Amino acid sequence: MESVKINARQLFVLIVLFEHGSAIVIPLGVDAKQDVWIAILLGLVFGLLLFFVYRRLFEYYPDQPLTAYLPQIVGAPLGKLLAVVYITYFLYIAARVLRDFGELLLTFAYPETPLFVLNAIMALAVMYGVYKGIEVLARTGELFLTVLYLLALAGFVLVFVSGLVDVTQLQPVLEEGWGRVWKTVWTETLYVPFGEMIVFTMLFPYMNNPVKVKRVGLGGMVLSGINLAIIMAINIAVLGPDAVSRSSFPLLDTIRRVQVAHFLERLDVLFMIALIIGGFFKISVFFYAGVVGAAHLFGVSSHQRLVYPLGLLVLLLSVAIANNYIEHIHEGLKIVTFYLHVPLQVIIPVSLLVIATIRRRFSQPTK
Amino acid sequence: MLFQWGMRRQKERMNDGVQQEGADHSGEAADVLEEPLSPELAVNIDIIRRATGESSDIVIRRFSLGQETQMKAAIVFVDGLVDEKNVYEFLLLPLLTASFPLPLEEKERIQWIEKKLAAVGGIEQVSDWKRLFFNLFSGATILLLDGAALAISASTKGGQYRSIEEPQTQIAIRGPREGFTESLRTNTALIRRRIKNPNLWLETMQIGTVTQTDVAIMYVKGIANDDIVTEVKKRLARIDIDGVLESGYIEQLIEDQTFTTFPTVYHTERPDVVAANLLEGRVAILVEGTPFVLVAPALFIQFFQVGEDYYARFDIATALRFLRVLIFFISLVAPAIYIAATTFHQEMIPTQLVIAIAAQRESVPFPAFVEALAMEVTFEVLREAGVRLPRAVGQAVSIVGALVIGQAAVEAGFVSSAMVIVVSVTAIASFATPSFAIAISARLIRFGLMFLAAILGFYGIMMGLLIMVIHLCSLRSFGVPYMSPLAPLIPSNTGDTLFRVPTWMFRERPRLINQKNIVRQSGGQKPQPPAPSRQEKGDES
Description:
The complex is a heterodimer. By secondary structure, chain A is an all-alpha fold. Chain A has helices spanning 8-20, 36-60, 66-74, 76-108, 115-132, 134-161, 178-194, 213-239, 241-246, 250-257, 268-297, 304-320, 325-366; strands at 259-260, 264-265. In chain A, 74% of the residues lie in helices and 1% in strands. The radius of gyration of chain A is 20 Å and the shape is globular. The N and C termini of chain B lie far apart (77 Å). The interface between A and B is medium-sized, with 38 and 26 residues.
């Protein structure tokens, strides 16, 4: 672990940027059609429950990351194994987000550039940021959150000024009842991006004021959830539910519709900036968690020593995990969710909390 | 990163070497001077002669002291460093005319002479050669007496200095016209005149084993953060170098990180700027022989601030701040954006313009990157020539320059006229950046961004900027985060960053720089029109 501390505002910024991350650009929960915003808000509500689980665990072990207290809860052999699983999971998700990011650039701007080159530049930036440490990442985040918000504001104004928003597209609400919405919540929006807060169990120990973790996490998640819901609602209001569910990048399609005074048009750059900022922080947080966890678990003195080897690993993994984008998306929706997200974000943390609570109950009277 | 790692390895290796060589070179300045002063005048004079290689500017005047009893004595000074009128009028004359009572002990003699010399300041008894020579070359006059193993050094500093002129590099439309000079004393006085407070502390030291350059640090006790003051002193004390000829030497030896293009120590020629920084709790480092005063710790935003921001009203100042940040941005990315837009993202340019550019570029044989690179390099060459050449030739350069970056180049088909405009805008922007130190780092980064733009278009530019911002956020100046108060965000200090709030709202000093004495002025100073008088009220009704 680094010996630096970040303050509440910086943690908040990291959470907000992380939650927006890739979620603003991918078609998040579009199976719910025009009710996607409800699905996102419901995902947020249950995501908050998961967050309370993670925070309670942090409360039990206030100065340790997840990978350090795993062995303490379930015993050394199993705990260390789980720690390795979590580290792998973090690095794998970092690679997945990197792949998402590269594919996106490939599709909409650089059809002839090799995926590896696009990913490599991003991986370099991530490695540089993680090498510099969490404090630098947090400070960079503070600057870029402002940029992101200004962009969002500009985007909103432009979309509304162009007269693209058609609220009737959001109707009828709950056309097919709650079934479709619940299905989306349980298969998508709960895990990405809200359940991914599990990665912050690696970052909470850096807080200079642990008491505020609850408020900061809650605030960050609620703000992000509402923002995401608004963005997806606008996407649907502009494009219509069918176009959104067929689109690979709904936000891009929305922004491309903007046309103001025959001058402000083709604003792909706005989208690209949002994509780069969000992607960078999402990958960085996952990668940082993986690197710090590995350094801690294997007793490496400084996490900086692991940045290059693991960075290279993530880069190569991002290219190798799927043959093409369709396969990549298929893996993401059908395999990763059920075999990785559900056990690692829900089942294991909840059982950890149960075991830890029981242990506390039984150990306290003996003291 | 790799580079840094490599450097660290090398540093470790170098450290091993340095320890063996050790303080070998510090003896360069003073090899013959270990023995104490001799009681015999002739011997002492001989030693001075030999030690200075009989340099012709060392003036040695022998004379006899007193009237009843004659006592041999001599004064030694360096021609040009002293005020000769002072030496003769207040030092030599009293001694020649004084009657010298007898008999007196050696000690009493010295005291008696010291009394006689009351008209000259800075009297000091010197018994070792090192101190004697240091005083001599600092402009003191040395009085040697026969029969005394002691010398009296009297401060008679003088000689020619450049007078106080308007600063050359930081010109203000409104604001004081005084600039620092090469004289350390003048410079400290210029600051003292602005802060008349006993808490303005000044500490002097000599740095440079050969040059023995006077270096002074100034800070306001009670406002400056003690940790930072100690840190500055520690870093200055660590310096072991043969000579300091400009404050740049010091700057490069005390900065937090060498491998960055961004300046982490601020320098200025303006006393009002230094005074303002001292009031914010910073530390000023003055070096004899240069008008550039260092100010530490420096923040990124500081390089966009100008003294005039505070003399002009806040709305104007804020608008100008935004303009300057925009200017910095243009000077960073303008050619890169041109390259990216013409090579990768034609769809982003309005159709008519893209047709016009394409028509111009039709005759240009190079890709946009080569075109831009050639023009930028040409411009940099011109600028370098313009800076270094004597004034008389400078005009010729500007005429020829206008041909090279201009219509002739376009007509010859080397470049497109759009490129000429881009290069010119970049050039003007880089001149308009208020601080040369930051403009020059933008110049360097610009080429990197052009290269990235040529490979990956806007994505390349943005990733370049992203890495630059990470780098900026990782910098520290004397422990203070370089990007503060923006990152880490300190809301109560952001009033003096992009925005410059009205003066009555400047309630606090920068928090990270000084942690205890934060409040700078009382609240409720918002100017208001006076309450309407009774008469006016009467008129209204």
